[in-house]
């Protein structure tokens, strides 16, 4: 079955979403749209992690009941689908979706039946920001490497998962590519972690420490299931795992690809803990674990906990969806960190969208109106071998783009993919300047002029088609301007991209 399941992580909702999460959503959306466009069956899944302890702490700090607090913030996350133009198929909320708790419970029972859960007393250093235990060696000067905070010393009896059983199996799956971790440096990081020896880890906490928030451990109501187990479970529970129905077969067990997108800070959860839990439960493992870096703003890390935050709603309201998506796709290197500034966003949007692609389409439609009465030049009137200007570079850019985009997206390299579209616009604008259609018109070179206009029209149509997964709205606007009406005329030219900032 040629179906692909694409997920984003489900963020905890202790604050409003920031631009770093928008990056992950837009990347997932591009993959989903591209594969749907290629005729594949795709399900794009996102949601929110409502059950984290830090949601509870944030609600307490705000003096708001927990459910009310997570409802409000979760709405800000799921609401991003509209301004970011996300073609998301389903959004699961772990505190309120009836599929979720039942599915998490089933996963727990499946792993317990395998003999992989046991109770023991535990003492450890817990970072609430990360919702994970750290060993002293993993801390930096006694502080969490992600948050820079001093972890809490926790001492209690918990349920443990026998991760130690799965190291060899995981190593083999990653080494033979059954679980592909991208980029390669992250794959090496996971292999090094496995080689250092995997230890069983705590998968529950006392209800008291969880403030009674979360999913109770089956048959042990004094314990709540560890929030990461709960959150990772969403990838299955959203497929009706509890009921074991068709969605699970179609999008998980029988899917050709199970693709998880995530930030580098949660790599071990997705490339080690989660596949191990799945192996224990007798379920298929993910095929692709795709890791992105962090965004900074003017050099400061953008994160909910650092206080530096760029609100994607505000950015879209000011600069428009296309400009925001384009910056995220064009400037963030594969798997690496990138620094965001509004100046960079505006420069990209103005240089490449307004002045580059937008100006090209506008110019070509205007030229066709001026020199061809708004009609697409008739191909039979064109004699391509009568000295028509050389279009080799532009033809190559158009011809190579589909394969370049396919290869780049298969490699999860969004910069390289958008570069191939941009290359066409860049070559086409050069081609206009070189061929000077207005001079050809003046000189009465009708056949050459028709050949040039047709070549340019072909370039614009290619851009309209190839841009679809990246900038769906702009792609439609471009394509609409290049379709002849019943009388054979193109619509009057109108700008696709406003200049911003
Ligand atoms: Zn932390």
What does this 3D model show about the protein?
With 501 residues, the protein is of the alpha/beta class. 48% of the residues lie in helices and 15% in strands. It has 18 helices and 16 strands. It has helices spanning 19-37, 53-62, 66-78, 98-113, 167-175, 184-195, 227-232, 234-237, 246-253, 267-281, 312-319, 321-331, 342-372, 392-410, 414-435, 437-442, 446-466, 472-481; strands at 3-7, 41-48, 90-93, 117-127, 132-134, 152-161, 180-182, 201-202, 204-206, 216-217, 220-225, 257-263, 288-292, 295-297, 300-301, 338-340. A 6-stranded parallel sheet has the order 3-2-1-12-13-7, sandwiched between helices. Strand 12 (257-263), helix 10 and strand 13 form a beta-alpha-beta unit. Helix 4 (98-113) crosses helix 10 (267-281), helix 11 packs across helix 12 and helix 13 packs antiparallel against helix 17 (446-466). The protein starts with a strand and ends in a 20-residue tail after the last helix. The structure holds zinc ion (ZN). Zinc ion (ZN) binds at residues 127, 129-130, 144, 146-147. Zinc ion binds at residues 127, 129-130, 144, 146-147.
The coarse silhouette is: elongated
N- to C-terminal distance: 47 Å
SS strand fraction: 15-25%
How many individual helices? Answer: 18
Count every beta strand, where a strand is a DSSP E run of 2 or more residues: 16
Name every ligand kind in the structure. Answer: zinc ion
Helix content bin: 40-55%
